[in-house]
Amino acid sequence: MLVLGIDPGTAITGYGLVREDDQELALVDCGVITTAAGQPLSVRLQVIYRALGEVIQVHQPDAAAVEELFFSRNVRTALSVGHARGVALLALADAGLEVHEYKPVQVKQAVAGYGGADKQQVQEMVRMLLQLEHAPQPDDAADAVAVAICHIHSARMASMIASMADKERKGSQ
User: For the whole prediction, is pTM greater than 0.70?
Assistant: First the structure.
């Protein structure tokens, strides 16, 4: 399974592609989409949309995961991230991808084992889980890779639960 993780932002949107084969994780690609601060919002969103479309076209992921918006005291920042999330969700939907959304605490829990983990702890766990020399850079790309890993772990757990439920159902018949 190849999962595209996205850490949305208007100035910088991180993306990371992680493949799982036989419970082994491998980093396929990661990076950031940047937009110029002086550009109109509509142009910046268009840049994000088109760049995500290219990433999707090149890598053909099986599923996508996007970090949910967390409550921010800075309303302007929250709105900006919300715009980028919307464009990312649209690009994924247009590509026909199954989209999953995770709260930051869920990502931290799935990757580092602790929902209150700091950025360095999450990045170190990403590095270790993917057996990399260094954590992906910049931070936005590493965050997106963590989102992809979160989905892989969550999907694996959901599959195990469904399998156990099937066995129980068959056993009671």
Answer: yes
- Which residues are annotated as catalytic? 7, 67, 140
Euclidean distance between CA atoms 125 and 46, whole angstroms: 33
Q: Which domains does the chain have, with CATH numbers?
A: 2-171 (3.30.420.10)
β-partners of residue 18 are 3, 27
Cβ-defined contacts of 123-130 (< 8 Å, 24+):
129/25, 130/18, 130/25, 130/26, 130/27
Q: Report H helices in 38-98.
A: 41-59, 75-94
Q: How far is CA 66 from the centre of its chain?
A: 5
Terminal CA-to-CA distance of the chain, rounded, Å?
Answer: 33
Residues in the chain with pLDDT < 70? 70-75, 77, 158-159, 162-163, 166, 172-173
